Amino acid sequence: MAKVITDKKLVDELLSRGVEKIYPNRELLEKKLLSGAKIRLYCGYDPSANALHIGNAISINKLAQFQKLGHEVIFLIGDFTGMIGDPTDKKATRQKLTRKEVLTNSRHYQAQASAYLDFDGGNPAQVLYNSAWNDKLTFKDLIELSSNFTVQQMIQRDMFQDRLKEARPIYLHEFLYPLAQAYDSVTMDVDLEIGGNDQMFNMMCGRDLMKSLKNKEKFVLTLKLLTDDAGSKMGKSEGNAVFLDAKPNDMYGIIMSWPDGTIPTAFELCTNVPYEEVKKITSNLKTSRANPRDLKMHLAFEITKIYHGEKLALEAQENFIKTVQNKEMPDEIPGHKTNSSSINIVDLLVESKLAPSKNEARRLIEQGGIKIKEGNNDFAVVKNANLTIEIKKGIIVQRGKRQYLKITK
């Protein structure tokens, strides 16, 4: 059994770094942690995509910090709640997923989370699935549980108010999502739930239900979100997320494309750089004593290193310097073999997976994001989505600043 560490400095950093709010208050949770009591905590992850992303990594990292101090951590996969779809911040009803889809999406979640969490050893994190208890609920159980909440509680949420004003539908199952998440806390009998500050409502529902059913105090710890300069969340819905299964070059390159304003928060939330160094980075940026580009390269290296190790992170950095800063082509270019002698550029982008859809391929072309190099000629920007490409020896397609693909027949 792991020994609980009660070092005051470590506990103070645990409750400060990346933390926005603690309910009912920080003092009570700090007192419990310093007492040497082992607490049970969790964060849930709904499998709405086939990979976790950097936003998920923020809470996973916080779970790992509690784990290192000897506390019992649960990594909860929401294979039940994921089928409902969390309505938080959504202006339209989310598409419901099947059990097969959520299980397929989550099959690599534990491996991805292991970049932070230890699932072996003397104090392993547990992996649980909330279908284990939610599938067993009867309609009678649901009525009993729902009697602990009011319609007013649910309808007051901003996204529901926005939908009412815009005459958009609100479905009953969306009301039940916070109840399902709340029941997770009760069933697992946790002392603490952590999550992004956008999850506060759902987590507080769990706190209320715990009081009603078990007369137990459940702490809630909300984390800051990774946002851009305008305060918009960086995530999969917003299209600027870094997925944890991204290749080293892609991960490094995407982070380098983030706005400069994300640098201090990203160091605090997404890296294991010592907290005192993070504070210095923030101070230096405010006083213009640091070059944002250099700091962003440091940031991209640190994040890439967590998932791919130092060697591959260094290689990704060297690749970025060569292909983006020095505008050289990489030494090794991946290839794509097509069955056609000639092919429309939009079809080629989709077939080669340089674009996920024809609409996205056309958007990339309209924005000047696609270039083609034939033989010894220089790269030329593709301006016409109706362009037909003759597949000759030496055709190279470039997407953006760092993606290259050699096309052969």
TrEMBL record:
One of its GO terms (biological process) is tyrosyl-tRNA aminoacylation. This is Tyrosine--tRNA ligase. It catalyses: tRNA(Tyr) + L-tyrosine + ATP = L-tyrosyl-tRNA(Tyr) + AMP + diphosphate + H(+). Its EC number is 6.1.1.1. The keyword Glycoprotein does not apply. Residues 329-405 form the Tyrosine--tRNA ligase SYY-like C-terminal domain. It is an enzyme of class 6 (ligase). GO terms for cellular component: cytosol. Belongs to the class-I aminoacyl-tRNA synthetase family. GO terms for molecular function: ATP binding; RNA binding; tyrosine-tRNA ligase activity. Pfam families: SYY_C-terminal, tRNA-synt_1b. NCBIfam families: tyrS. Signal peptide: none annotated. The keyword ATP-binding applies. Keywords: Aminoacyl-tRNA synthetase, ATP-binding, Ligase, Nucleotide-binding, Protein biosynthesis, RNA-binding. InterPro entries: aa-tRNA-synth_I_CS (IPR001412), aa-tRNA-synth_Ic (IPR002305), Rossmann-like_a/b/a_fold (IPR014729), S4_RNA-bd_sf (IPR036986), SYY-like_C (IPR054608), Tyr-tRNA-ligase (IPR002307), Tyr-tRNA-ligase_bac-type (IPR024088).
